[in-house]
From TrEMBL, chains A, B, C, D, E, F:
Keyword Endoplasmic reticulum tagged: no
Keyword Transmembrane part of the UniProt annotation: no
Pfam family, one: TOBE
Biological process terms in GO annotation: molybdate ion transport
Name of the protein described by the UniProt record: Molybdenum-pterin binding domain protein
Keyword annotations: Molybdenum
Top-level taxon: Bacteria
Species of provenance: Cylindrospermum stagnale PCC 7417
Domain Mop: start-end pairs: 2-68
InterPro entries assigned: Mo/tungstate-bd_C_term_dom, Mop_domain, Transp-assoc_OB_typ1
Family annotation (NCBIfam families): Mop (TIGR00638)
Alphabetical list of SUPFAM superfamilies matching this protein: MOP-like
């Protein structure tokens, strides 16, 4: 599948914290570089996420804010 | 400064493409791992972005969609 | 592919308006029910969008605001 | 009222699932075509949402990601 | 009309800058307190925005990032 | 620090409501003008937010929807 979002990054699931409604998923982009995603618990179950499995992080370019010191 | 957004990633500016209104900034998170941001041209100028300079990518965790094959 | 976003709707591309930077894509969800998407021109080209072709509209549930009269 | 968001779709409330903080609202756009929205529980109460009632789904065009197989 | 978004702020249109595709609208919330919105040019025309007119700024609470020094 | 987001507003924390996962923060922009933010409970703790303290509201201009009566 192809998507219009510019950022479609290959990652490894590093950690999953399951709440009552939402699940916090930590995705490793490269050694020591991680991105955290919050999705609904039902989505996390539907996707069959598990630590060590491969997943993609999909981020719209307009959702990336740039900052400098 | 501290921000509520969970993802505040240290990057290096890899490429800047300036349009008439928006600027597309490619940020390198790790060798070969890049994230693209689209910001207004005036913001890019205000930040003084330049290739090779350090910058941060600020992304809300709820803006990261997870996908699996 | 499976995605964490709750809304993954099957549509038909109804109209494409190409600007200098962005492309406006009108997607038909059902007869007379349309949703408009704005994506970058380069994304539209990469996806090979064309009127009459099938496409999916992917929308996070937190991006849907509800209103009542 | 008029809004700048391009998508302002007439719907019927199909299902409401109330959580401790958030409420998940399923809106029917056309027979068999539904969109899910997650709003705060207090917003759902303020709006007086109920199954069978009419409501609008308000979605910014930049929040609609397009995908193709 | 009632909306699920928590922030629905009464403002006065302070400045309108029209681009080829997008329009930048500066809204005054209180003397000296302004918020900038970028909407499509066609939306700005449809809304009949003009400097000095009253308008509302509609912002989802999850789109407000908090920062401290 | 400088950020690409156009709206970076100085505020005073007016009210904090702590939930099990999320925290609702009411920020006062000017007397009687408030904006509500929902952030994760862990972010609120990391930021050390407290009623009466100064904080910034960071909002992307594309996240501000404009409405008129």
């Amino acid at each position: 599948m192809e998507v219009s979002a510019r950022n479609f990054l290959k990652t490894t699931v590093k950690k999953i914290v399951t709440g009552s409604v939402n699940t916090e998923v930590t995705l490793e982009l490269a050694p020591g570089v991680e991105v955290v995603s919050i999705i609904t618990k039902s989505s996390a179950e539907k996707l069959g996420l598990a630590e060590g499995k491969q997943a993609y992080a999909l981020i719209k370019s307009s959702d990336v804010i740039v900052a400098v010191d």
